[in-house]
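Q: My collaborator sent me two sequences in one message, no labels, and asked for predicted structures for both. Can we handle them in order? The first one she listed is below.
A: Yes, handling them in the order given. First sequence, followed by its structure tokens:
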Amino acid sequence: MSLSRRKLITTGLAAAAGVAGLAAADRIAKAYGLIPPDGDGIYGPGETLTYATQRLLTRHSMAREFPRSMISEKPFGNELAPPIEAFKKHQAAGFKDWTLSVDGMVAHPTVFSLADLRSLPTKSQITEVVCEEGWSYVAEWIGAPLHHVLDEVGVAPQARYVVYRSIEKDWWESIDMADAAHPQTFLTMGMNNGELPVQFGGPLRLRVPRQLGYKSVKFITQLTVTDSMKKFGKGLGSASPEAGYAWYAGI
């Protein structure tokens, strides 16, 4: 999409929101395929305006990266529920058999071991985790950009989303292809010059620094590439909107 066309659409969205209401903005976004999975319902027009505007204006923006001196001395880790038996077994074995399966709309469905993932080009970023509850911390995250895995499996051109699941079966999220291909979206295996601690999602966490912390799911075991979220859960894009949160949580 050209810059001038992007400006035209964005101006139309803003004008519609201010003059004719959010419903008109929703219609414009729908015409250009910018409706989020949770775009229906009472809050749908607002969610759509947020998502569409972000995608038009900040599609390639970068999350702020910090100097090493600003890494939090005591990063806050959410209290974890007691791990399920499958996780306990992996942990007792040092996670040597942990795998990530990638399926859906891909040319080559693949199961990656942690060793496979570590063999991919690895990068680090010092970015902030921001929680919707009001706390945050800065840490170094080390891992393979997600787009390397997607390149390996060959994503179908009509794909629109990547669904990712934790070993905790009810813990799942999804992102659109813009975030999936973004260079800061990491399959994270390390933190602050060491391995990724369990408290922070080890052995494998999908880090999405351009969105609120709940989009960075811990203990990842599966990625599914799809063109529609209708067949997943309640069709809202992830477990988050099913619990009252927004699917798109851009910051």
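Q: And the one she listed second?
A: Here it is, processed independently of the first:
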Amino acid sequence: MSGIDRRGALGLIGVGALAAAAPPAAAARTLDVQSPAGKLLAYILMRGALDERLVISYISGCYFGVVDSEVTPLWDVIGVTFTRYRARADGGFDVFSGEIAHFLDPKTGEAPGEFLIPYTGKIAKDPRTNLPPSRYAILPDLQLQFSRVLPGMVSDHHVRDPEVRGDDIWFTDVTRTQAPIPGAPKPFRYSETVSMHARVSDLLKPGVKRVPAESNFTNFVDWRPWMNMAGHPGHLSAVGNGRFGVTMADLPERWTKATREKWPEILENPGGLLDPIYKPA
């Protein structure tokens, strides 16, 4: 791998948190996740890959409306991301990423394209669109650098220091964004936390390029414009869980069915989603 000396990152950067946590068979190898290089390496192994393979990940959860601290179930959500990681000369990674997400009826499992909004008693049309694929960089200090942002968009991203207990390691990303909406009196805000969990023993395996990782997420987001809830107090919130680095066969069947109906080409060639922004090195 370019940009990070693998011998230094995995073996010679000092005895850190993972050295104490690793099982005896892996004790000869250490990964100091308190050092910038060790933290970055563990993060990429869990979230992406050290090579440019297609990394498929998903989150499955549910959305609620929140008004006066009271939650009202609204719809389910399954989002699947397709990413490739490329090592940079500065030690960071370029990330090429695209997502296909569906809002689903919790009772039928279908993506109906419309939902009854309980606060207004009206049917709102879900446009069933996804943002185009994007490219950004994960810098050596785990800050994000976007190659292109929407005019007026403000984003803050922070990776909390990893937590290690026994053979378990967790990373948590905290992201806050806001962007102006034409004609709206205030910007649209979206905030989320995503936690990743993996095994220390997996991170310490010689030659490993990525490791199995589980995820949990929580978000807080303004009413989506298509809900026609402008001026109504409250906001949306969602919770869910999933995995990083799975196969297409591992994805939730509800997502596969909805994608087959709307974007069948993704199932035939999932990597094709990134073709507009990614070319092999």
